[in-house]
Structures are given as C-alpha cells and as structure tokens.
Amino acid sequence: EVLWYMLALGKKDIADIAETIAQNGGSMGAAAKALRTKYGAQKYIMQDGDAGTFITDLSDEKAGARGLVSRALYSMTADVKRGTSPQVFVIGVGGGNDVWAHKLAGAKSVRGIELNRGVIEVHKEKARDHLPDGTPLPLFSRGLLEDKNIEIVCDEGRSALMRDQNRYDIIQMT
C-alpha cells in the first residue's frame, strides 16, 4: 500500500500526517488506510506519459480533504477574494482541486478549461455511482459536475480565455 499525498500542504497538515504514520507504527500501508478514512478516497490520474494529478472525493460535505484543499495553494486566490463571490476561470482542471477550492470558497461561477479530454472523462466516470457491471464507485467529481455554477470544458486554455466574452475576477492557471 502506498501512502497518498494529496496536495501541497502546510506545516499543520504535514505534522498531522507524520503523527498518523507514527500512530500506525511507521507503517505507510496502515497510515494510508487511516488517512483515507480521515480525508477521503483519492486516485491518481496519469497523463501525457509521466505527468499526473490527484483526484479526490470531495463531493461528501463531511470529507476531511475539504479542509486540506482550503489550506492548499489551490485556494490562495480564493482566499484573496473570499466573501466577494468571484467569477473564476481555471486553466488546467486536472484533478479538479482548483475548481473545488473556488467552489468551497463561495465562487459565483467557475469555468474550468482542460486540454486533455481523457481527464474530463475521468471526472465524468468518477461522478457515476457505479460501473456498468454494478461495481460501486466513489462519487469524486459529482459535486462539480452537478453544480449549475460550474462548467468544465475541453479546450486550449489561453485560446478559450481570449474567445470568452465574460469578465473574470480570478484567472488561475495551474
């Protein structure tokens, strides 16, 4: 079992993870299970040969990972505009962390642009509650895909922004 490491975390979160590892006898496998229980399920999307991103199940309102994403770098621009209900344009949806950060911070709308259609398909697949054979799936992206204020589009980010007639309070490129 491999220990997952979701986001660029701060000292508090790193200390919490280190404590969880210590509480589990230094076993990365046992710690991984404990962290998944605490923060929620997570998968790694491999793309473009060796680039990748994490997709985390943040659709559950009780997910501990919601606290992590709100303290991660993905939320920095959301923190600057907190309380203003900004309109947000995200270039590079990846695992959806930027989109989640702005949704959780109260963005009025989020338009996410992802060049890789396969990444968008992973979100759509992980938003279903079961595979065609009935195997249950975590709901991962359901909270993004079912939100009428969030739009995920397959396009080239800079070109999409140049063609877009809307004005945005935040433009985030990751």
Compact summary:
This protein is of the alpha/beta class and 174 residues long.
Give an account of the 3D structure.
The chain has 174 residues and is α/β, with parallel strands linked by helices. The protein is 39% helix and 18% strand. It is built from eight helices and six strands, in the order ααββααβαβααβαβ. The model has no long low-confidence stretch (mean pLDDT 84).
Which characteristics define this entry?
174 residues; alpha/beta; 4-stranded parallel beta sheet; two-stranded antiparallel ribbon; 39% helix; globular
Q: How would you write the strand order of the largest sheet?
A: 5-4-3-6
Q: Judging from the principal axes of the Cα atoms, what is the shape?
A: globular
Spatial gap, N to C terminus: 29 Å
Q: Report the sheet with the most strands, covering strand number, pairing sense and barrel closure.
A: 4 strands, parallel
How much of the sequence lies in strands comes to 15-25%
Task: State the order of secondary-structure elements, H for helix, E for strand.
Answer: HHEEHHEHEHHEHE
Structural class, by secondary structure, is alpha/beta
Number of helices: 8
- The overall pLDDT, averaged over residues, is 84
Radius of gyration: 17 Å
Which bin fits the share of residues in helices? 25-40%
